[in-house]
Amino acid sequence: MGTDGEKQLRGFYRLSFYLALVLLLWERASAQTRYSVPEEVRVGTVVGNVAKDLGLDLSSLTDRRFRAVSGNEEAIFEVNQNNGALYVHKHIDREQLCQGSGACVMELKILVENPLEIHYISVEITDVNDHSPTFPEKEQTFEIAEHTLPGRRFQLHTARDPDAGMNSIRTYTLTANEHFEINVRQSDAGKIPFLVLKKMLDREQKDKHTLIVTAVDGGKPQKSGVLNVTVLVLDSNDNRPTFNQETYEISIKENIQIGTTIFRLNATDPDEGSNGEIEYRFGKTVKKSVSDTFELDKLTGDIKVKGLVDYEQNDVYELDIDASDKGTPPLSRECRVIIKIIDVNDNSPEIEVTSLSNSVP
């Protein structure tokens, strides 16, 4: 039992020693000295006199091997054993050392020997506005149908700025225009820009819109980056074919040859693609005498003589013609072609002889 008691007592003393050592180190750590220095300062810039701030004797720094120890392979900060100053030893780029907008703090240990002392200091690297916002791509293209309702949103590329705090991206702007505005939504990933349609597009008025989106940071002076945005307006079938007049009048001679082209219709449709392709056909109420005498080319709009034209049988023809596009659903317009027949001397005179005398028996 005596032996066990001695072992317990030695264990107690050992534990007490370790606890005292931990408390001593904790006390020194809690009294940590803090400094601050902006990134991009010149190598050799003095951060502070750490020896004076720690109450060390400047005359004994060399003998006590006064030095700084950091966790980095390449020491960014060093101390001067002659005057006790902490200075910048390597170029500082905050964005390489720390990512994000939080505090960028470097932890250092200051060591002196004889007797051994360990002091903990921290140096906060503050941000300077040394980066401009950049977009992942220089250009972005949208295809938007002309019938799209206002209020529709289109997500733009998000700019990136490695600077922190006020030096990071503050807002997005858009060149003045009639149809679009910019809207910015805040998320965990940052500010996300959207292109918002505020006025309906019309391809027939303008089939392409060119815009510039600018990402602006909050630095002084401000820095910015641009994104070139192109909007291609897709066609919808919102226009009917049109003729340059509602009624056409032409005249032909009755002895005109079969197969002769007597007139060409030319309807126009400003829509694009199949929405602007036109076909021609006779109206549903056209008379049989018309379809027997004339034919209509559905693609060219040419009207040709199909049968014999005889003034004595019919001196005028009225053709109702539809021009229809190939949209879904198709849109159409009607016109009327009046064909007047010119008489020619194609009939011999008929002679009738009437006797005025009495017949001779």
From TrEMBL:
CDD domains: Cadherin_repeat (cd11304). GO terms for molecular function: calcium ion binding. It comes from the Eukaryota. Gene3D superfamilies: Cadherins. It is a single-pass type I membrane protein. GO terms for cellular component: plasma membrane. PROSITE patterns: CADHERIN_1, CADHERIN_2. One of its GO terms (biological process) is anatomical structure morphogenesis. It is found in: Cell membrane. This is (spotted green pufferfish) hypothetical protein.
